[in-house]
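Bumping with the actual sequence this time:
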Amino acid sequence: MATLSHVNQETCLVAMLPSTPRGARAARALTVAQLAEQRLPFEDAAQVVAELAANAVTHGRVPGRSFRLALRITAGPTLRIEVSDTRGQFTPSAVPAAEPGAESGRGLVLVAALTARWGTDHGPAPLKTVWAEMDLGSPISPDRGFHDPVGRPPVAHDA
């Protein structure tokens, strides 16, 4: 379930999603839909959400519990992405955990490269939130278009 609000010139989307690969894909699709609707660039943000959601599903999963995606767009515009899970004992690191040639282990290095800043907040126990902020600067250029990187139409959400 996703909720969308517009308060004090700030747009916020909050969604509770299942801790499954399908939930991670839905997080990415919601991000694309939200940013495209506001004519903001979404390709890098979609990649950041995909990495953070995949980590929540892979490393933060507790059976029967969901993860939370929060997107906050403020003046600037600045996008704050938050992905929360209930495995607070695992703190992420941007140091590559993979050997050369490995197919995984570099997600947070990518997040660090695509965002202006990122970090982790803990609490209340057992909650852990990994957040990232992106300066979105300019609207989507007409030649960049609205290609959905997920390859599917954006997911509709409640207004």
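The tokens above came from a reply further down the thread. The CA atoms of residues 84 and 129 lie 4 Å apart.
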